[in-house]
Amino acid sequence: MDDISKQAAVGDMKGGYQTILYAVEGPIARVTFNRPEQRNALTISFFTELLHVLDRIEADDDIRVVIIAGNGPAFCAGRDFKESTKATPAEGAHYGRLNLEARTRLRQLTKPVIGRVHGPAAGGGAAIAIECCDITVATKAARFSIREVQAGTLPGLPVFTIGRARSLGMLLTGDWVSGEQAERWGLIYKVVEDDAELDKAVNQLAEQLAPQPALAMTYTKRAIAFLLDLAGHTQAEQYLAECRKLLHQSKERVEAQQAFIDKKRR
C-alpha cells in the first residue's frame, strides 16, 4: 500500500474497526476477527485493519502478549470468495500483497502471539493459526483445512512444520484435520476439551508470558525465524505470491471459487 492509501485507511479507522475487535487489558492485547456472519472470511479491508492493529501493538511497549481469536462459530474460513471472484487482477494482487505482509508481520511481531481456535480454521485462517501464531491452543471441536487447491489457487506450505507427506496429504485433498490430530502432528501447541477450558488455557498462557523478559522472548522468536529463513521459508513465500498472481487470472480459479459459494447456498 502506498503512503497516501495507508494514511487514508488509518484515517478511516479512527472511529473503530469494521472487521476486527481490538481490546487491551493491562499487558495483554486481544485481536478478535469480527465478521461472524461470513465466518470471519478474509478480505482486503480485513488485512488493512489487521496491519493497522499490528502497528499499534508493536508501538505500545506496555503490551507484552497478543491473543488472536475469532468471533462466532468459526475461527476463520479463509479468503472471502464473494470478494475474490469479482476481483480484478490488480485487486487480486493487492489482496496478495496485504495477505503476505500481514502474515509476515504476525510472525515477526516482537511480542508472543497466542492463537485461540474454537472452531473451523480453513485456508488463510488455518495459515494464521498454524503458521503465524507462536502458540496455538484449540478445542477438540476445532478443525483445520487448507483448501486452496480445491479453490483453484496455491496454498501455504506447512511442510516446514509437518513434513512432505502430511503436507501434500492436507494440501491436495483439502481434508479436515481435527484439533486432536493437529496436536499430534505438531500443527498446534495444545488441544483442550471445550471453550471454557480454551479460555482458561489461553488466559493462563498470556499471564505466564506477560511478566517474562521481553527481549529474551523477542530474540527467541527471531532465532526461530532465522532458522526458517535458512530453510528457505521467506523465498518460498515470495515464490508462492508470484504463482498466485498467475492463478488469480485463470478461469479455473474463478469457477472453483464460485462452486464453493454455490455449495453454501444450497
Tell me what you see in this structure.
The protein is an alpha/beta fold and 266 residues long. The model is unreliable at 1-15 (pLDDT under 50). The N and C termini lie far apart (37 Å). The strands form two sheets. Strands 1-2-3-4-6-9 form a six-stranded mixed β-sheet, sandwiched between helices. It has a three-stranded mixed β-sheet with strand order 5-7-8. It has one domain: 2-enoyl-CoA Hydratase, Chain A, domain 1. It is 54% helix and 15% strand.
Question: What's the gist of this structure?
Answer:
The chain has 266 residues and is an alpha/beta fold. The chain has helices at 3-12, 44-59, 81-84, 89-108, 124-132, 159-173, 179-185, 195-209, 214-230, 233-248, 251-265, and strands spanning 20-25, 28-33, 65-70, 113-117, 120-122, 135-139, 143-145, 177-178, 190-192.
SSE topology sketch:
Blueprint: H1 3-12, E1 20-25, E2 28-33, H2 44-59, E3 65-70, H3 81-84, H4 89-108, E4 113-117, E5 120-122, H5 124-132, E6 135-139, E7 143-145, H6 159-173, E8 177-178, H7 179-185, E9 190-192, H8 195-209, H9 214-230, H10 233-248, H11 251-265
Parallel strand pairs: 2-3, 3-4, 4-6, 5-7, 6-9
Antiparallel strand pairs: 1-2, 7-8
Helix pairs in contact: 2-4, 4-5, 4-10
Features:
single chain, 266 residues, alpha/beta, 2-enoyl-CoA Hydratase, Chain A, domain 1, six-stranded mixed β-sheet, three-stranded mixed β-sheet, 11 helices, globular, disordered N terminus
